[in-house]
Amino acid sequence: EPEVTQTPSHQVTQMGQEVILRCVPISNHLYFYWYRQILGQKVEFLVSFYNNEISEKSEIFDDQFSVERPDGSNFTLKIRSTKLEDSAMYFCASSNQWVDSEPQHFGDGTRLSIL
Amino acid sequence: ELKVEQNPLFLSMQEGKNYTIYCNYSTTSDRLYWYRQDPGKSLESLFVLLSNGAVKQEGRLMASLDTKARLSTLHITAAVHDLSATYFCAVDPAGAGGTSYGKLTFGQGTILTVHP
User: What CATH number does the domain located at B4-115 have?
Assistant: First the structure.
């Protein structure tokens, strides 16, 4: 079964450094998302992306965050200058929303630890 | 702002027992999802509920949606240890006030532990 893949599985970064999280969505999906989950808390929406542009973003997704689809397969989340509070699990998801019954499919996540 | 509340947040069950997890949400929506998460793992889709009165069943789990009451339930029948996980409901406010599809708002999650 096709799946969303994310790399790396764990990223440790010094505060203030830039980090790029990578995702390969399911190949025929057109909608892409990033979510985060701080340890022990609920999953929070960050951003949705369709047709090479951001469809919607949350208050969390400030100027330090950006997303890109640099080629036909990858979808990346960049955090420009990381803060301690950016430590979380980041999940990429994709969906084919032309199919009503289709859920968002999530990757295994990247655990980001800011020191 | 859409609020999604689950209860209970912690559920300790004995094997063989039945129980229900509730998911209330605060705004109009006709799309609700249930996901399962094992510790340290990703979110696995369980059910997609798209209309009022929708009922879906898979094994020992059954989910329903009442859009008028803004309530979804996840019913567990004759629990087994393998069902131990965290269960999230997530609401897509699609169509309400022109919001685009896909911005899921999750509940806090229900940590289910099934004991022998």
Answer: 2.60.40.10
